[in-house]
Design goal:
The structure holds two protein chains of two kinds. Chain A is of the alpha/beta class. Chain A is built from twelve helices and eleven strands. Classes of the chains: A alpha/beta, B mainly beta.
Chain lengths: 383, 143
């Protein structure tokens, strides 16, 4: 990609079980925090972008209004879930490159715990009639259906999923923002009962109320701002062929062991001019543990069937070969649908990871999404 | 014929494309679309062929025999509607003879269900609709 844009700031509200406030208020707080973090004035922000599932959030227009932002050159709302964060940063960077905007704030906000809960939400798509009457009625089951087949074909087992949950919980101990911070080891993991086999509670993200935002700026502006730019070296979105009638329909997609990451990796790395071996930090979307394994293999960071052993070896820990999900992931930090995954990637590239800062952080791969469609970014230091 | 009185499980919200499928299930038949241009079978019902894009199709009955492509065992209900149903198994079944994949519960010995198991259809009549389920075929394990 030829655009020169960078993530310049990140913002969060606290993640809680009950925010006690509106989604619009959460959104505005996180966006304001990200704008402040970047060191921008509000009147420089000329774009807002976000996403929601079944109208569980607020439109970008409303956020621009309550923050008293100037005239907007880009307001973008996607009807998507966790596939969206890297996609929106990609689109924001492309818009900046096209001259449509200079500084775009990208957010996800929701009362995802006290309000509409995606985990048990019914997606009223065209495929709904073929799943809810059968009790195939939660997003977790769709990801579990893929995870089961993935483990079967690649020779993996419950210890591979458990290794993901255990490794990420170690990071969460270092992350004050994380909702799940109590230590867990593989024995404690294996002792948990199944919720939807092959998933136990520790394999599942935890729903929260909260908001998270990042600011994407033109690189020439970014270089004058407070923090080192996290350059958007490339971005990609991909939906597989025959991706279905809606977010929960995956009957026409024939390979549950490969998700969108397998299909966007070539473009993603090619446009960034780096290879999977160059990645020094990876933030892999993890609504459930299996998607980390599928994502590491899909991106080409691990070979086919090798991701489980890679995680079990300790390679994804802070002192390992490739730190992965350094915030504890959605499994432990909380389910902001991967907006927080992108924010963590930016913090790592900027060297602002604090106690959980990866020692080498010039090239970071980050993904958004679990199944048929999703998106990814390569963020790099300004070099 | 077994009749299950639906308590909380939602009935399907049928539309113009799916009506023939649900009507056929009521008669204990499994009716899927076949593209009249490329001949591929498809499910769910839709107005164009996802393999070649052609609009024309005919409806054909399939046996409902197939193999488990993947499955989940649900130990904890995630919606109130299913609280009385756990534990249960939901499978994606690859129908034999080039058939499409279809989703259904697998009844019987839940602990025994495994990928590649051969399954046969089972029609469960609810008060206003009929559900396609499966059971493991005799000698279900892959040879």
């Amino acid at each position: 990609m030829t655009q020169r844009a960078a993530i310049t700031g990140v913002g969060y509200t606290p993640f809680s079980r009950d925010s006690g406030t509106s989604v619009l208020d959460l959104a505005a707080q996180a966006c304001q925090a990200a704008i402040d973090d970047a060191g921008l004035a509000r009147d420089e922000v000329d774009g807002v972008a976000s996403f929601m599932v079944m109208h569980d959030s607020v439109p970008s227009q409303a956020v621009a209004t309550v923050l008293a932002l100037p005239e907007q050159g880009l307001l973008l709302d996607l009807d998507l879930g966790g596939q969206a964060p890297c996609y929106l940063v990609t689109l924001a960077a492309a818009a900046i490159n096209a001259g449509l905007a200079r500084n775009v704030v990208v957010f996800r906000a929701m009362n995802g715990r006290s309000g509409d809960r995606v985990g048990t939400m019914q997606f009223h798509g065209m495929g709904a009639q073929y799943r809810y009457p059968l009790g195939y009625d939660a997003y977790m089951m769709y990801v579990a259906m893929w995870g089961q087949r993935f483990l079967h074909e690649t020779g993996g087992g419950p210890e591979d999923l458990g290794a993901v949950a255990v490794a990420q919980r170690k990071y969460a101990e270092l992350n004050p923002r994380a909702v799940r911070r109590s230590p867990i080891d593989i024995d404690a993991y294996m002792a948990q009962p199944y919720v939807v086999e092959p998933f136990r509670a520790a394999d599942c993200t935890i729903e929260v109320d909260g908001a998270c935002a990042v600011v994407v700026s033109a690189l020439d502006r970014a270089r004058d701002l407070r923090h080192p730019p996290a350059v958007v070296a490339s971005g990609a979105y991909r939906a597989v062929k025959r991706s279905g009638l809606d977010i929960g329909d995956h009957l026409l997609w024939d390979d549950y062991t490969r998700n969108y990451t397998s299909f966007l990796a070539g473009d993603l790395f090619g446009r960034a001019g780096v290879s999977p071996r160059d990645v020094q930090v990876a933030e892999i979307y993890d609504c459930f543990s299996s998607t980390v394994l599928i994502g590491l293999e899909g991106l080409g960071i691990c070979g086919r069937g090798e991701a489980g052993a890679f995680v079990r070896s300790g390679a994804t820990a802070l002192d390992g070969e490739l730190p992965v999900n350094t915030h504890g992931g959605l499994l432990a930090e909380g389910y902001l649908h991967g907006m927080n995954t992108v924010a963590e990637a930016a913090l790592q590239v900027q060297g602002r990871g604090g106690d959980r800062q990866a020692p080498n952080h010039e090239v970071c791969a980050v993904t958004s999404g679990a199944l048929m469609d999703g998106s990814a970014l390569i963020l790099t230091a300004d070099r | 014929m077994s009749v299950v009185i639906t308590q909380n499980v939602p009935a399907p919200q049928v539309d113009i494309e799916s009506r023939p499928y649900w009507d056929a299930l009521r008669e204990h038949r499994i009716s899927v679309q076949r593209c009249t241009t490329c001949g591929r079978l498809r499910f769910p019902p839709m107005p164009g062929c996802p393999y070649c894009g052609a609009r024309g199709f005919e409806r054909v009955d399939v046996s409902g025999e197939g193999r488990v492509y993947s499955f989940v065992r649900v130990h904890r209900a995630l919606t109130p509607a299913m609280e009385g149903e756990v534990p249960y198994v939901v499978a994606v079944v690859q129908l034999d003879g080039g058939g499409p994949r279809i989703i259904g519960r697998v009844d019987g010995d839940l602990a025994a269900v495994a990928i590649d198991d051969a399954v046969v259809p089972r029609f469960v009549d609810h008060d206003t609709w009929t559900e396609l389920r499966f059971t493991r075929a005799v000698g279900a394990q892959k040879p």
